Amino acid sequence: MEQIILCCFDAVRMLVLLWPLAVLSIWHPGLPKWVDRMIHLDSTILMNLTSLLYLDRSFRTRQQHLQRVSAVVKTEISSDTMEVDITLSPRVNSVKPSKTVAITDQATALAQAGVPVAAGSLILILQQCAVIRLAAGEPDFDTPAVIAEENGISYTPDQILVSNGAKQSILQAVLAVCSPGDEVLIPAPFWVSYPEMARLADATPVILPTPISENFLLDPKLLESKLSEKSRLLILCSPSNPTGSVYPRKLLEQIAKIVARHPRLLVLSDEIYEHIIYAPATHTSFASLPGMWDRTLTVNGFSKAFAMTGWRLGYLAGPKHFVAACGKIQSQSTSGASSISQKAAVAALGLGYAGGEAVSTMVKAFRERRDFLVKSFGELEGVKISEPQGAFYLFLDFSFYYGSTVDGFGAITGSESLCRYLLDKAQVALVPGDAFGDDTCIRISYAASLDTLQAAFERIKEALASIKPTVHV
Ligand SMILES: Cc1ncc(COP(=O)(O)O)c(C=O)c1O
């Protein structure tokens, strides 16, 4: 129906508006200026009608390489060349790329090579060789220099893939590089989806526990001891969900040295909380470390720092070979990220370095909330804390209370039953640590107002007071 309306409209405007003007312009020397104005008017009307009918549905949807969202990571590769295993999962070869997406890419390539793109019917008549883009559109993003400079890394457009959220970016990366039998090394506590994504890729998650006494940071020696021929991917998340830990640069350098000795090993660096970080902690992009650019798949997104969760926009940056494989998988599951979200993301990037004033105001508020919670829970008996340096989560060790019983509720055997008890008794919803691979802890998100957090703390405190802890010696 929409197409019929557009076709009719096109025919009418050709007959009534544009064709006579085109003919007249040949005869009258002063007319081209008017023709120009009419073309402008014509394309404006057409644009408005199109957007009314299609609501920008196909126009500008395929922003496959968010040419401008991220950056081009120029690695400071050390003088010695290191090998990287660039094999892909057999599932990548078994999938045919989407033809519609491929054609759109060809049209883009032609347009980028200077072949004009037709905008309206008259222009098409005047520009016989123009590419008519009936496949999908390309939005007009400019690479934000701020991002490129922020992390000391840079990427060309074909080294970036924009998806409907960082979750999609991560899954596609895992599917692209992991084959059945491969191992994915995941420090715990981990973001809930990592091990499941490894399983979806027929790989085996290998969990590397990190204790609260070490601020939940991976011990390089433990990593080294777990590496084998099967190790394909190490997933790092800094700042971390659920712990808020931030990997110091020096520790990342030690990890990088170990990674460099294993040609098969790639790193997926989930940096979605990079802007939510509390000084003096600083963020280091793993890909910026010497020799790591070639083997790092960096994931980021707009859900956290820009509070744009519902907009569903994330991206992957890495060597073209891997990004193309992820693009192939994506081309058969979704045609691209929402154009509306991409526009919003461009606006977010326009806020300036690290999200500018808006994000720093948010980070200031998070910091105030973190300080309140760390101080308050620090005063409670038996609760162990590692002060988060980033993100907006507190991962508290409540194992002191395990093994206790509460009248009218029963036994508290672990994080799951403690969370159930706190929901029952205090009406506060928290996430059990076992979901993140550490049953000793419970995750508290402080993405809530200080007033709400104060009320929650009082209720938790009261509920915990009713538990009779087992005698600890
Ligand atoms: C560590 C981490 N990575 C990725 C994601 C997914 O983000 P998105 O909303 O962009 O899919 C989340 C969301 O909670 C997260 O916490």
Automatic annotation (TrEMBL):
Domain Aminotransferase class I/classII large stretches: 150-460
PROSITE patterns: AA_TRANSFER_CLASS_1
Keyword Mitochondrion among record annotations: no
UniProt cross-references to CDD domains, sorted A to Z: AAT_like
Cofactor needs: pyridoxal 5'-phosphate
Pfam families: Aminotran_1_2
Keywords: Aminotransferase, Pyridoxal phosphate, Transferase
Record carries keyword Glycoprotein: no
Gene3D superfamilies, per database record: Aspartate Aminotransferase, domain 1, Type I PLP-dependent aspartate aminotransferase-like (Major domain)
Record-stated family: Belongs to the class-I pyridoxal-phosphate-dependent aminotransferase family.
Protein name (Swiss-Prot/TrEMBL): Aminotransferase class I/classII large domain-containing protein
Phylogenetic placement of the source organism: Eukaryota, Viridiplantae, Streptophyta, Embryophyta, Tracheophyta
